[in-house]
Each structure stands twice: as C-alpha cells, then as structure tokens.
Design brief:
Layout: H1 11-23, H2 28-48, H3 69-74, H4 77-91, H5 95-114, H6 142-149, H7 157-170, H8 174-178, E1 185-189, E2 195-202, E3 208-212, H9 215-225, H10 261-274, H11 284-297, H12 302-309, H13 314-317, H14 319-333
Antiparallel strand pairs: 1-2, 2-3
C-alpha cells in the first residue's frame, strides 16, 4: 500500500483502511476503492453541511482531512441515501457504481460499530443496496481467439504471446498475471512418468490457488524462457535499460522490472488492433471471460470452473451458464421456421 495515498484522510478512516487490508486481508485495489467511496461520501457531507461549495466540477477537489469523529457520528441513513441520489444525478453513477459505494459505507460503519464502539447499531445497517443489472460478459469466439494468437507481432513477441496464451487458457485476472514469479511455476511427474506443470497465483483477498497448465501454456512458457545466442535470458528483452535490476517476476518490462498492469493492457490493446478487434469494446478482462466461456461451452463443470477462476461464490460463476442459456435462446430464434404461423 502506498502510504501517501491516505495521508490526508482522518485517522478513523485510516484505521478502517488498515484494518481491511491487514486484518481482513483485502487487496490494495479493494481498500483503495473503499477509501475512494468514503472520501466521496464525506465530500458530499461537507457540501450538504455548507462547508464546501455546491459545484459538481469542484467536487473532486474537496478535502476531507478536517472530518472529525463527531462528523462521522452525525451521519444518518437519510444522508447516505441522499448521497447515492447525488452520485446518480450529478456524477452519472450507474447502479453498479452506487452499489459499490453503498457496500463501502456499510462496511465502514460496521467497523465503527463493532471495532470502535462508536455506535450500538450501525446507522447504515438498513441502507439498501442498489441492485446492479446483471450483464452478460463480452468474450471472443473461438475463431477470434485463434485469430488473435496469430496476430502477435510485437518487439517482444515470445513474452507477449505467452501473456495472451496464459490469459486465454487460464482465465486469470490482470493483477494475477503481473504478479507471477518464476518460482510459482513448478514441474512434477505423475506416476506414469508424464510431466505436469502447475502455476500458483495470488487472487483476490490474497487467496492462493493452483492452476494446471495445459500444453499450449507450457509450450509458450518454455519458448519464452528458452535462451538464444544473442540473449541467454530472453526475459531481459532487447533494449533493456537497466541490466543491474534483476527480479524474479516471470514477465519483465524493458527495464528488467516486473511488467506493469498498464503495460500488459497496452500489449493486449495492440493485439486487438492487429487482428481488427479494436472496435468491439474489449479489454484484458474480456480475455478472462473468453477463457471461462470456452471452457464451459466445451464441457467443464461449473463447480470446477469456479475453482479455476478463483471465484469465492458459485453464483459469480453462474453467469457463464446464463450465457449459454442466452445462446440457446438466440439459436431457437434463428431457426427459419421460428416465424411460421398456422394458415387461416
């Protein structure tokens, strides 16, 4: 966690952030989202109380360092409801964004009630969560996925090909891929002598899981690490600027440091563009959806898919079964007899 990110937050909010990260084991992204939502709430609180200008364009500049425990205690359910309405009307927050903000407020005030004894009952206990509309995930068809793999023509082709293959086969998240260390991939042998490669990834909430690599992943991985005449360690990449900064990350930047989330996003965007898929609103996360959808469509049990993807709840994985239901509905509508009517 970057310490200066929360420097201007009141101590009580810092305590909540540290509790969520250290005690509850939340990821850095999760606690940042909590903080962002709570900060927005107390910006609104200051506007409501006349302590800040009621100007949506200046909203993001409102500081909250002067928020006291008395301010925090004075908040009621109505204020929270008005906040969610404000974010809808003035910030164009959709249901999903408002749902997250409501969850953040409930978690914060639950902490204040149970851990700080500031309330007997949390004032947010009855805050209703705006139900986000379920959306079917976008994904690549098998043909599009294969096309993408044949259009990786970047300066560091072996690395970038391995990255795309891992995304499309393992269904991992962006942060999980960027966090892979060399030691996380292991080779063992079955009783019959066959070799098996496994990958340990660190998922949401710092939860580890093991992914068994298929042959495409193993081939891409070995090809990426294979030394050549000009570069004994292909991971250093041509044009490496800092040869004195070794790292045990699997995927490296040209500085020979662990590749960043943003750089991987750029690589994927370049590959989408190369194969003519850049106008479909796709992203790195859509590769995860692609892997999940293709596995489910080809017979992988949803309970197994849950563990492969690292979902905590089976309901999260069920969206891929709904996806197939939608496809079956569309298939029925495409039947040339779908519009037939009885003769009068």
């Amino acid at each position: 966690m970057k310490g200066n990110y929360y420097d201007n937050a009141p101590q009580t909010i810092k305590d909540f952030i540290y509790y969520e990260q250290i005690v509850k084991g939340r990821s850095e992204l999760t606690v940042k989202n909590y903080f962002t939502d709570i900060r927005s709430f107390f910006r609104f609180y200051k506007v409501k109380c006349g302590r800040a200008a009621d100007n949506p364009e200046e909203f993001s500049e409102i500081g909250i360092s002067d928020i006291t425990d008395e301010d925090i205690k004075s908040v009621d359910l109505q204020t929270a409801q008005e906040f969610l309405i404000y974010m809808k009307d003035h910030k164009d927050n959709d249901q999903k964004a408002r749902y997250r903000k409501a969850v953040s407020l409930r978690q914060f005030y639950k902490f204040l009630t149970n851990n700080k004894n500031m309330f007997e009952v949390s004032p947010m206990a009855n805050l209703e969560l705006p139900s986000p509309k379920p959306a079917l995930p976008k994904y690549l068809t098998l043909e599009q996925a294969l096309e993408m793999l044949t259009h990786i023509d970047t300066p560091d082709k072996k690395r970038d090909y391995c990255i795309i293959v891992f995304f499309l086969n393992c269904g991992m998240r962006l942060s999980e891929l960027c966090g892979i260390k060399l030691k996380d991939i292991r080779s063992t042998h079955n009783a019959d002598g066959s070799e098996v490669y496994t990958l340990k990834v660190l998922g949401k909430g710092s939860k580890e899981r093991i992914i068994y690599l298929n042959q495409a992943c193993v081939d891409a991985y070995l090809d990426y690490l294979a030394p050549d005449i000009t570069d004994p360690d292909i991971r250093t990449a041509r044009g490496c600027r800092d040869m004195s900064a070794p790292t045990d990350n699997l995927f490296l930047s040209r500085r020979r440091t662990g590749i960043s989330n943003r750089r991987v996003q750029q690589i994927v965007e370049e590959c989408f563009k190369s194969c003519g898929l850049d106008n479909m609103g796709l992203s790195v996360h859509k590769l995860r959806h692609t892997a999940a959808t293709l596995m489910y469509q080809n017979g992988v049990d949803v309970r197994v898919l849950k563990d492969v993807l690292g979902h905590e709840n089976l309901n999260t994985t069920q969206i891929y079964t709904h996806l197939s239901d939608k496809q079956m509905e569309q298939a029925m509508q495409k039947n040339p007899l779908a519009g037939v009517k009885p003769r009068e």
